[in-house]
């Protein structure tokens, strides 16, 4: 139940659930997160400030909060997607949201401070609530992702609490932008045959380079779940390690900000192989205590030679 670590200078998205108690629909304007941030050990101060409609909220450059709008039907609940961008490392506190009603009325919706005992009980009850929510949303036709537009959709029973999480200094962020296997659902090999696949990875960070790259291979998550015992899981790991190999690039490989690099992986057709995950672990020399990983699944079908 621990909130994920966030990296500064990267967009973070939150889903706010709002309720309209009135017998008429409500148009909500200038909807934005109320966020605070402070260096570790310091008291957080409100780092957002008022701004004109349609612009970003950017107080002391610690947090940039984006405004949006949505419509909630009469007597209903709705969800809206909200975005913030931490600009400094430290302790981030999400206190609630602010919005505007009827063109002139400003409203602050402050999240409750949850007691430790209540938090523990909520964690115990979470699996049951998640299952009930999935079943309820499915029956009501709500089991679809949030729309791309800022309009709200009927929503859920989750109650919100004040959220605190840690923001670390800027980190590189790798993603696969091209794969030589893109047109194949599964890599087809004969037993004993091998092929090279290329993955073009790009560093989406505009600040720091991706360094200390380590490429490893693991079984697909479905294969791990299907293993009946630890020995079967170990055999699956050994099979993937034997079938996959990384064709190493230059020593001290460095993928600069907004740059890309082509990773080459050789896959051998071995009996029983269904695929594996290419796992790229990386970090930055400027923040050696933090690292990230990129996972890319590769499905393989191996045909036996007659």
Can you give a write-up of this model?
It is a single chain. The chain has 306 residues and is mostly beta strands. It is 14% helix and 45% strand. The protein contains 3 helices and 19 strands. The chain has helices at residues 116-139, 221-226, 230-243, and strands at residues 6-7, 12-19, 26-38, 45-46, 56-58, 63-66, 68-72, 77-86, 90-101, 105-110, 163-168, 174-179, 187-190, 194-203, 211-218, 244-247, 260-268, 275-284, 287-303. Strands 1, 3, 4, 7, 9, 10 and 11 form a 7-stranded mixed beta sheet that branches. Strands 2-8-6-5 form a 4-stranded antiparallel beta sheet, with no helix packed on it. A hairpin with a 4-residue loop joins strand 5 (56-58) and strand 6. The termini are far apart. The model is unreliable at 43-59 and 144-159 (pLDDT under 50).
In short, what is this structure?
By secondary structure, the protein is mainly β.
Summarize this structure as a short list of keywords or feature phrases.
19 strands, seven-stranded mixed β-sheet, four-stranded antiparallel β-sheet, 306 residues, mainly beta, 45% strand
Low-confidence parts lasting 5 or more residues at pLDDT below 50?
A: 43-59, 144-159
Please report the distance between the alpha carbons of the first and last residues: 52 Å
- Range of helix content: 10-25%
Instruction: Describe the sheet with the most strands.
Output: 7 strands, mixed
Give the helix/strand layout:
Blueprint (H helix, E strand, L loop, with lengths): L5 E2 L4 E8 L6 E13 L6 E2 L9 E3 L4 E4 L1 E5 L4 E10 L3 E12 L3 E6 L5 H24 L23 E6 L5 E6 L7 E4 L3 E10 L7 E8 L2 H6 L3 H14 E4 L12 E9 L6 E10 L2 E17 L3
Parallel strand pairs: 1-11, 13-19
Antiparallel strand pairs: 2-8, 3-4, 3-7, 3-9, 5-6, 6-8, 9-10, 9-11, 12-14, 14-17, 15-18, 16-17, 18-19
């Amino acid at each position: 139940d621990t909130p994920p670590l966030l990296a500064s200078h990267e967009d973070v998205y939150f889903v706010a659930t709002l309720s309209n108690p009135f017998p008429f629909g409500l148009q909500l304007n200038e909807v934005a997160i109320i966020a605070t941030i402070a260096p570790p050990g310091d008291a957080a101060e409100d780092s957002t400030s008022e701004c004109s409609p349609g612009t970003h909220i950017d107080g002391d450059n610690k947090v940039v909060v984006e405004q949006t709008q949505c419509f909630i039907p009469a007597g209903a609940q709705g969800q809206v997607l909200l975005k913030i961008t931490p600009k400094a490392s430290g302790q981030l506190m999400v206190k609630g949201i602010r919005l505007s009603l009827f063109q002139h009325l400003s409203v602050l919706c402050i999240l409750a401070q949850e007691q430790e005992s209540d938090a523990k009980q909520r964690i115990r009850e979470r699996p049951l609530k998640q299952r009930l929510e999935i079943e309820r949303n499915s029956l009501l036709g709500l089991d679809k992702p949030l729309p791309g537009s800022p309009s709200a959709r009927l929503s859920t029973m989750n109650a919100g609490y004040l959220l605190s999480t840690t923001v670390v200094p800027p980190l590189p962020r790798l993603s696969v932008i091209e794969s030589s296997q893109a047109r194949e659902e599964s890599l087809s090999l004969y037993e004993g045959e091998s092929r090279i696949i290329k993955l073009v990875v790009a560093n989406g960070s505009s600040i720091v380079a991706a360094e200390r790259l380590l490429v490893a291979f693991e079984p697909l998550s479905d294969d791990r779940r299907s293993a009946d015992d630890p020995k079967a899981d170990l055999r699956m790991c050994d099979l993937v390690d034997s079938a996959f190999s990384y064709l190493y690039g230059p020593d001290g490989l460095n993928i600069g900000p907004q740059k890309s690099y082509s990773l080459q992986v050789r896959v051998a057709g071995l009996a029983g192989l269904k695929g594996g995950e290419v796992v790229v672990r990386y970090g930055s020399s400027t923040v050696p205590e933090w690292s990230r990983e990129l996972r890319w699944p590769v499905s393989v079908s191996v045909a036996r030679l007659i």
